[in-house]
Design brief:
The chain is 12% helix and 42% strand. The protein has 2 helices and 29 strands. The chain has a 6-stranded antiparallel sheet with strand order 11-10-15-18-20-21, with no helix packed on it. Strands 3-1-8-5-6 form a 5-stranded mixed sheet, with no helix packed on it. A 5-stranded mixed sheet has the order 12-9-19-16-17, with no helix packed on it. α1 packs antiparallel against α2.
């Protein structure tokens, strides 16, 4: 419409000039003038209507904006395959590009007393790889991990340890902590007393309680698990221990009541074999086996005492066997495991001077404290 209005406007101006010329020339052609005047009035009306709709003569309409071209899609960059490292780094980096060539990872150990247990690649364990460095080749994305563990050591609390000499006897200076592995891990450590190489990474030590005057042993804790040996058992030997272990002696005053709350006396499995002796010098072996769980007696209402037998058994007070707890004042029956032969009793039961040969296979005993009994076989 705007383009047509330009034509109308141009024609309107031309007619004005013609009309002015005719009028100036004094033309007598009135009919022609009247027709042109009528046409001019019609054009004027069209121009007025156009102006009302926004048309301005002589003003160009703004040009339509040119469309912005869409940029060409960029080609995606190829994905880079990487090796991710856990508790380890390659040249200080924990994410390195796959190269297809041999790389060496170094374990990152943040605290003392921690060592590499083994290395793993994509979840596959390499148990023989226990060094702080690990060489591998990655042809594709992979995860390499240094699996860590505490170093192997034995520790005592309220007790001290000795190494055994060539004759198997405790000797040398006492100690309370020892790390029984060496670096590099594939090398044996030297036995501190004999100087011999210990190839299999185990340790054998004699453990002895340190009991101040006026106190006695309430029970032992081995890695926080209670072991209820008799309170006369103050020492034993741990043979071929192969994992970190803490031996703790829990003490109580001799005058304190035995009715104090105690943990379960039932032992649970622990590494190594315990051999030892009571203060009376009687040697024995404690076999550590997994027991059946038993409820803790309610010591708040009834006082319980522990009965322990070696080469014998007892019954009474709702308990029996080689060890158990019975209420105070319980009369128990103790019987030897020997079917025949000559033997003597020792421990809390006294038969004469405790050393006279006897054939008494059983006896009764009233329990008013923790007690133990042992039948000693005499070889003729």
């Amino acid at each position: 419409m705007k383009h047509n209005m330009k034509q109308v406007f141009s024609l309107f101006l031309s007619l004005v000039f013609v009309l002015a010329a005719l009028a100036g020339c004094g033309s007598s052609n009135d009919d022609a003038l009247a027709a042109m005047q009528q046409q001019l009035d019609a054009m004027q009306q069209q121009l007025d209507e156009a102006e009302q709709q926004g048309y301005t003569p002589g003003v160009k309409a703004p040009a339509a904006p040119k469309p912005t071209p869409t940029p060409a899609a960029e080609e995606p960059l190829p994905l880079q395959e990487n090796v991710l490292l856990f508790n380890a780094a390659v040249n200080g980096e924990t994410c390195v590009p796959v190269s297809g060539e041999a790389m060496t990872a170094e374990a990152v150990i943040a605290e003392e007393g921690i060592r590499v247990d083994h290395w793993a690649v994509n979840g596959v364990h390499f148990p023989e790889e226990t060094m702080d460095t690990f060489t591998f080749t990655a042809d594709s994305a992979a995860a390499v991990e240094a699996v860590l563990r505490p170093e192997k050591k034995v520790t005592t609390i309220n007790a001290e340890m000795h190494f055994l000499n060539e004759k198997g006897k405790p000797a040398g200076e006492p100690f309370t902590e020892f790390v029984f592995e060496s670096k590099p891990y594939d090398a044996p450590y030297k036995h501190p007393l004999t100087g011999a190489d210990v190839e299999n990474g185990t340790v054998t030590v004699h453990v002895e309680a340190v009991v101040p005057r006026g106190y006695r042993i309430a029970y032992w804790l081995i890695n926080d698990v209670p072991y209820y040996f008799d309170d006369t058992v103050e020492e034993f030997t741990v043979v071929d221990l192969d994992e970190t272990t803490v031996y703790e002696v829990v003490l109580e005053e001799k005058s304190s009541s035995s009715s104090a709350s105690k943990p379960s006396p039932t032992p649970t499995p622990k590494p190594g074999t315990l051999t030892g002796g009571s203060s009376g010098g009687n040697q024995f072996i404690v076999d550590i086996e997994k027991p059946e769980s038993s409820p803790e007696p309610d010591t708040s209402a009834t006082v319980y005492y522990t009965v322990t037998c070696f080469d014998c058994s007892f019954s009474g007070g709702g308990a029996g066997g080689s060890s158990g707890q019975v209420p105070a004042g319980t009369k128990i029956s103790v019987s030897t495991d020997y079917a025949s032969g000559t033997f003597y009793w020792t421990g809390d039961y006294s038969n004469g001077d405790n050393r006279n040969p006897s054939t008494k296979t059983s006896f009764s005993y009233t329990v008013n404290s923790d007690c133990f009994f042992q039948a000693i076989y005499i070889v003729n």
